[in-house]
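Q: How would the structure tokens look for this protein?
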Amino acid sequence: MTIRRRITRIVKANRSAAVEAKQDPRVEAQNAQAAQRALLDQARRGAADVAAHHHRVGLAANEAAAYLNRVEAAVAAAVQRGDDDAARAAIRESMTARRRLDTLTAQLREAEQQARRLHEDVQRLEHRVRQNAMEYDAMVARRAAAQAAIGVHEALASSSREAASIEAARHRAELEVRRFEAQARAREELSWSDPSSPRLQQAFEELEAEASVQQQLDELKRRDHRGGPPARY
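A: Here is the predicted structure in token form.
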């Protein structure tokens, strides 16, 4: 392998490791659960195969036991007839049947033990898968709750900042209103102190008009008191 190819493989390996390190923990948990479920399915299939083997061995053992009973019955019948040759042949066959039955019985016990162990293993694996699933669901719920809490805290912080901004804006508006009111009062005061202001001129005109009206009224009263004709204006 050339140096260039080695460096390329090292770079790719480092990139793969970096990608795996950045992988979402939830994805890792889901992958682990999927692998456990696959192993559980495999264990179930193995347990089913062992159970089927146990059933087949049991059937074969039952058949061997029935055959042994028939051979032993044949031995007894041959002995009762006095047929030594048939009895010896039946005894040899019964011995073979006995060995086959013993072998099948041993296989049946082994298959039964194996099936029991696999059944217990499957149960433990099922419990583990369920436990991991519950822990994963709890982790997802905790993660969602933590995210919700973060969102609430962020909303509260944002609300506090907005409230502070609103209070600052209200304070600025209050200061501006006060400034406008002060300017209005100042202008009103200046309008009375300036002799050339229209407001002061209007006030003088109103006073002069009121004085003229009062003068005419006084004149009318005097003439009316003397009995003379009213004056024309």
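The mean pLDDT is 77.

The CA atoms of residues 8 and 14 lie 10 Å apart.

Upvote if useful.
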